[in-house]
Amino acid sequence: MVAVLLILIPLLSGLASFFIKEDRTVKGWSLFSSVITLLAVLYAIFNPQQLSYDAAWLPTLGARFSVSLDGMGKMLCLLTAISLPVIFVSTFKNTYQKASAFYALMLLTQAGLMGVFLATDILLFYFFWELALIPVYFLCSIWGGEKRIAVTFKFFIYTFVGSLLMLAGIIYLYFQTTGGSFALKSLYALHLSVKEQNILFWLFFIAFAIKMPVFPFHTWQPDTYEQSPTAVTMILSGVMVKMGIFAVIRWLIPIFPLAADHFRDIVIIISIIGMIYASLIAIKQDDIKRLIAYSSIAHIGLMNAAIFAHHQIGLEGVMIQMFNHGVNVIGLWIVADVIEQQLGTRKFSQLGGLAQKAPILAILLVVMSLANIALPLTNSFVGEFLMFNGLFQYNAWMAAVAGVSIILAAVYTLNMIQKIFYGNTTEITNHAKDINGNVQLILVVLVVVVIVLGVYPQPMINLTKDSVQIFFANR
Amino acid sequence: MNAIIFSALAGVVMMFSGIFTKNTSIITNVARVALAVLIAVNLLDTYGGWMIAVDTKNLLSFNKFGFFFNTILFVATFLFFVLSGRDIEKVGSYTAEYYALIFFSLCGIAVLTSFNNLLMMFLGVEIMSIPLYILTGADKKNLKSNEASLKYFLMGSFSTGIMLMGITLVYGATGNFNLPPISSAVTGAVVSDSIIGPLGLLLIFVSLCFKVSAAPFHFWTPDVYDGAPSVFTSFMATIIKAAGFFAFIKLFEERSSDLRVSWKIIMPVIIIATLLAGNITAVFQQSVKRMLAYSSIAQAGFMLFVVYANNNSIGKEGILLYAAAYSLATIGIFAILIRMKDYTFNGYNGLAKKEPFIAAVNTILLLSLAGIPLTAGFFAKYYMLAAAINAGGKSVLWLVVIAVLFAAVSVYYYFRVIQAMYFKEGDAEVENVNNRFKFGLLIIAALIISIGILPSVLLNWFYF
Predict the structure, then answer these.
(1) How many Cα atoms occupy the beta-carbon half-sphere of A221 within 13 Å?
(2) B126 pLDDT band (50/70/90 cuts)?
(3) Phi first, then psi: what are they for A181, rounded to 5°?
(4) Is A415 exposed, middle or buried (0-12, 13-18, 19+ CB in 10 A)?
């Protein structure tokens, strides 16, 4: 029942938020709701029992409302549940027109995300997959930047094309199961011919690859991240891209193992091309948001490659990194938001010398950035090390080429720090103030998480161990 | 039989009501009551209550599927009356006659949902269509309306001629007008060496394609829909089109799976052509009304899947859902469109600020047409695709993939309206919005969402 609550709390409180008139009330209400959700997730994590719920939904179709929490689900639900309060607190001072609708849509997005991570019925999964998309479409289109309408529309069409292809695949799978079922179990038990798998694999993979996004399906991403309001960008890059990674691990590879083997090299190679390509572009960026966006493509590419390399160590790395990447990228966005709110620009060329004015911000950002480069003692180091290890065991050459992206990451990240914080102050940064209050609190918390998980990642590995085992047992 | 008799009677009543009163709102209310009675007697028929029994010598055969289809279309018409009654009154000075013609058209629909004989099908199609020729020209001072009416009439009679030719050929091949032998003409069981039977059926097929505006027989649709008074466009694009599909699936009902090869090639070609013509042209429209005309062609492309799918049970459930989802959503969107001052996309700019409720409902309806989950349109599309895959397996996967890609194209033009309403600045103007109108919209939106979450609510009635 807790599993259902994870969807219901944000869903109902989100619907309720539409009707709250007062801006401050709706902020408090949504923060309250997201904290309750977080508590529910924590309860679920420390509860050793298998948490699942199953009820009839569409008897004529054979679709069931069945949700279940495994280790990977718990970890991603935790990430979702943490990010919402973090986002709400860190952007507490931001004002939005029609705030009630903004917060309501944020909570609805959370409900959709939770559903994606929980569903064990593929039609239900598809439902939530779309449900997470619709509120984001409105969030970006209403509260986004100047070019928001066209950019968000591109994003929507891209992902919608992917989803529809997946839908065609889902319907086909349904007729292959005995008696017609959408359940995860009966899909795992399918024995599809190689030819069928090879076709269906792409129908699903394109949907997931667009969401992640993997090169060459990534073109929507930098524009969307740049134009969205930062609170939404945090959700998009922190949590939503994990939907793609998650879906590959949960649905794609176990259902089409032969096709996954068959196309392994292709997928890993396009992932690595994407990593290098995105890193190179990131070096040329002059905008904090775009830089983080491209760096995110590079990180996701590595995760995707590590999954397809198909080694246990690599997959453990992916599990850890899904969480860590979420934490780190949200931290970076918070800093980007602080700078933009305070100084009104995100361009490096107009910034400089901020360390003199805002030393605390500088320290916290440097830690976050080091985590982005995956330096030892930060959380990403563990994840990336494991992933590279997995990739290396599959093919040393591929790992070597992919490794170049680490160097490139150092180049663009340190470049960003240097341009923002050091050098002489400019006209704009002359009047900058240091961060305080909510933002400082949240960043400190995130930095603590970064370091703790960097030194002691074992809890994360233990949490997701069962999912890793199931993944490999299923071959 | 109830539905046929009562709809004809209701038409006569409406004609005479114009003599007794000139108060149009009374006439509208009489029409609403008459339609409610029609729905009630049809339900009585469905569940074996009171019914008028007439020995039709097997010309008509009644079954639950047909009754249920009647119910869906009558309820859609009822909502149409509730939402757009005022606008029907405004078209011209013959309110009573307009309602009478609509009821006659419904009578044709009732015949179409129960025919068991080709002559009856012909009668049904004609009874349904002739009132529409008049309604299209109802705005008689408007040249566009006149042109549309004439065009519709000419094209309609032409296609009727083709249908009659087809029926004649089928008669020549099989020796009677009854339905089952015709089905075997397609499979080639009876007249395997004769071209006459299949050719006749092909001609009937073409004329029905014309009725449901499937490409390449769709060219009349945008002009007629655009020229006709918007209220009647709403009626034509939804209820009439759905009824046309019923004739389609009834005609090819008992087709066995070993169809002739040529048939299997024709259907995908028509489906793709329809999707292509509807979707691609809709993208370039500047007027929402014209966009909806093309979108109705595109939606017809999806409904054609049920014909392709050999009418399996999934397809049958699906066409019921599709008819309901599509008709409800389109009626609602048209009802809003009619009251807009400006029919272009820009005319919707900023509607969300002025009329948040109407904008929200319009959004739900557009999302349903686009086939987004949580709305009825999703399951409608789902069932169509499922029916096709169930019938063809791996060999139709390519067709399904093409269809979903076109569904993504359709998102483009449906979302343009949403973008105009929510994200663009402007002062969209809606005329006379009262609470009853809003209530009607609320009901439509609630139906769309509840079918979208639990389609079994609707389908369970079917299995009752």
Answers:
(1) 28
(2) very high
(3) -150, 150
(4) middle
A202 contacts in chain B (CB < 8 Å)? none
Under the banding of pLDDT at 50, 70 and 90, the label for residue B33 is very high
Give residue-wise pLDDT tens across range B227-246. Answer: 999 899 999 999 988 888 88
Complex confidence, ipTM: 0.88
Output DSSP code: residue A251.
I
Pick A131's closest partner by Cβ from B373, B415, B423.
B373
Name the one residue in this structure whose structure tokens are 């070993």: B258
- How far CA B407 is from CA of A299, B86, B369, in Å, comes to 32, 34, 10
The CA distance from A323 to A242, in Å, is 9
Give the span between the Cα atoms of A372 and A447, in whole angstroms.
12
CA angle B161, B163, B167 (to 5 degrees): 115
Q: Looking at beta carbons, which residues of chain A come within 8 Å of B317?
A: 60
The mean per-residue pLDDT over the stretch A410-426 comes to 84
Give me chain A's average pLDDT, please.
87
Length of chain B, in residues: 464
Return the residue matching tokens 């994840």: A383
Residues B213 and B273 sit within 8 Å (Cβ to Cβ): no
pLDDT tens digits for A106-157?
999 999 999 999 999 999 999 999 888 889 988 888 888 888 888 888 889 8
A60/B459 touch (CB, cutoff 8 Å), yes or no: yes
User: Residue B413: inside a domain, yes or no?
Assistant: yes
Task: Kindly list the distances between the CA atom of residue A48 and the CA atoms of A35, A76, A469, B446, in Å, as whole numbers in the listed order.
Answer: 22, 17, 17, 41
pLDDT digits (tens, 9 = 90+) for B253-274: 655 444 555 667 788 888 999 9
- Mutation pick from B423, B454, B458, B459 vs chain A, by most beta carbons of A within 10 Å, is B423
Q: Say if B427 falls within a structural domain.
A: yes
* For range B117-123, the mean pLDDT: 89
Helix (DSSP H) and strand (DSSP E) numbers for chain B? 20, 0
- What is the value of pTM for the model shown? 0.91
Please provide the size of chain A in residues: 475
Helix (H) or strand (E) holding A85: helix A71-90
Instruction: Answer with the residue of higher pLDDT: A233 or A473.
Output: A233
Angle at B296 between CA B295 and CA B298, to 5 degrees: 60
Q: Facing residues of A54 across strands?
A: A66
The residue type found at B92 is G
Task: Kindly determine whether residue B408 and residue A203, on different chains, have CB atoms separated by under 8 Å.
Answer: no
Q: How far is A26 from chain B (nearest CA, A)?
A: 19
8 A C-beta contact, residue A99 and residue A23: yes
| B461 in contact with A, Cβ within 8 Å | no
Whether B409 maps to a domain, the answer reads yes
Residue keyed to tokens 């904090």: A288
What is the enclosing helix (H) or strand (E) of A342? helix A312-343
Task: Please return the burial class of A54, using the count of CB atoms within 10 Å of its CB with bins 0-12, 13-18 and 19+.
Answer: middle
Q: Single out the residue of B267, B212, B268 nearest to residue B245, CA to CA.
A: B212
Q: Do residue B385 and residue A203 have CB atoms under 8 angstroms apart?
A: no
**Domain of B452?**
260-464
Task: Sort residue A209 into left (φ over 0), alpha (ψ -120 to 50) or beta.
Answer: alpha
- Pairing type for strands A63-69 and A51-58 reads antiparallel
In contact, A183 and A121? CB cutoff 8 Å: yes
Closest to B113 (Cα-Cα) out of B311, B9, B246, B208? B246
Cis before residue B131, ω within 30 degrees of 0?
no
The H or E element spanning position B43 is helix B24-46
Sign of the Cα torsion B174, B179, B185, B188 reads negative
- B400 and A59 in contact by Cβ < 8 A? no
Quote the number of domains for chain B. Answer: 1
Look at residue B172 and tell me if it is in a domain. Answer: no
Highest mean pLDDT among A333-342, A354-363, B434-443: B434-443
